[in-house]
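fold description:
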Amino acid sequence: MISRLIKHRYEVLERLGEGTFFQVFKARDRTTGRIVVVKALQPLFARDADFCSALRTASSITGLNHPNVAALYEVLEDDGAPMLVAEFVRGMNLKERIRRLAPFSLAVAVDFAIAIAEALQAAHHAGVVHGDLRPQNVVISPEGAVKVTDFGMAQALAASRQASASNLARAVYYQAPEVAEGRPASIPSDLYALGAMLYEMLTGSAPFPGETPSAVEQKRQNEPTPSPRHLNPGVPRSVEGIVLKALQKRPEQRYRSAADLLNDLKSVRDALRFGKSLSWTPADNEPVTVAPKPTPAAVEAPAAAPPPTKESVAVRRAAPQEPEAPVEGAARMSATRASDDRISPFLKIALATVIVIILGTVLVGVSFWMATFKPPEEQKFPNLVGMKIEDARAAAEKANVRLMEHEEFNEEREPGVIYRADWEPGRPIRPGRSVNVWISKGSRMVWVPKVLQMPGQEAEAKLKEAGLTLGAVDRRYDDKVPYDYVIVQNPRAGKRVRRGEPVNLILSDGVKPQEDLPPDPDQSQNNSDPGGGGAAPPDPEDTQPRNYNLNVRVRGTGQGQRQVRIELEDALGKRTLIDERHNEGDLISQKVEVYGGRVIVRVYYDDNPTPVLEETKIIPRGRP
């Protein structure tokens, strides 16, 4: 599959992984130059006619466009089976992030939930229901951008019993009760899934955990909706209410739309930013049913009471007791009046005077504050497009606006220049608001500069300046090129390649020393063993150290940091040079003393016993 050209357009670059339904590849669109994800069906589901037929209808959502939605570009046909081409999203899925970091801080969990709710709002407005929303389908970039993926899978899962059963083990924790009973996915079921994800971000656990789907379903049917405060007492009352309302078992008791849920989540975010109270709950705005008082007839002839339960006993203990008879109530009122009469009238007047003074002071202070207080004035949002990111940060700080920065390749703007913002220039903006901006990483393709006849360090700096990286570095003797200058570069100068492409160099070791010339054959015969059967004596130069420049670049697979172990084998045996963590793309350079004329270098990643790189180098004799 690697290097394959799909439909004469998509060039497959590398394999990203595979899941239950798809094999996922990174590819380049030769028409637009952008990097995409190609999802090819696993053979088992490529033969499922119902699943494939329903998946083809996913092409109807290719027009869904939102910053928090991973776009689906098109649905292709490959050997009779559909193949999806979607936006390439770099980052870690929310499930893995929860596994590593949960419980999240309140601000982070609410920000992620707002981004997901905004994606759902856009999709629902376009008539699209996700139907399979779960943390595995939400990707968080290293910059904090949120993308919801796999819109359009719900119809395919519903059409195939085999696909639905394969997906159940991961989706059951986030399925609404009505979907588990066989009803189609809907807007309320998407909001239920978001409530379950918010619960998991705040607590590190699903609302109804279980080892099997049937165990989860049994808990969901028979147990009350759990509160996140049971596992995380730091969850405020408002967020608890939002989660519980989203997780109601009946659809009509949940939020009516993603917009309603967004309003409550944004209220929490504003309260966190400006120090407002979080003691409210969505239930405060709902009508409360008050039980009617018993009629006199019911009091005179009460019905036979059912056996008391634990709940009824607790309620009776907590409830205030009513007076048992009017006479007793009158006696209590008389006792209260007698108690009031024992207080000195002068003390009553003094207390009343103090209270009046306090209230008057408060009223005057509030009036003065209201007369002098001016809310922060809204400012017109500056035009950041075309600005260097440093200048844009200064302009945003002046307007008291926070920038959410995203870096992407752009053919029209220089690196470090903003080419898009999600707030229109000149439009009023409230202080403290966040605005998404997209920063150009430059063109995907760059020209290879000429670094021949340049010192090695200068050549590396020039390659980095051009947007390229230094690849393998070898050395050889050259009578015309000075020591440590570039003899050969590959790719050649003037070639247009992808940004970040490694350029391999060969550096000069200067003039070859006389002792390194091949020996005279006649002299070799004279020095050989007269007996003809013995081995040649050991070369005394093998006991002298030789210089070897080790250059290894850590390969990138999107996994972040990794443990790198570099092992070297020479005439003295094996030894470990490096065993430490490095970022992907790091260049490990080290000058090493080796013995003998041959060196074997092996590179291992993490705990993998198989080296990812093993190469043999011939080391000429040189300066020790």
Notes: The longest strand covers residues 573-582. The radius of gyration is 36 Å.
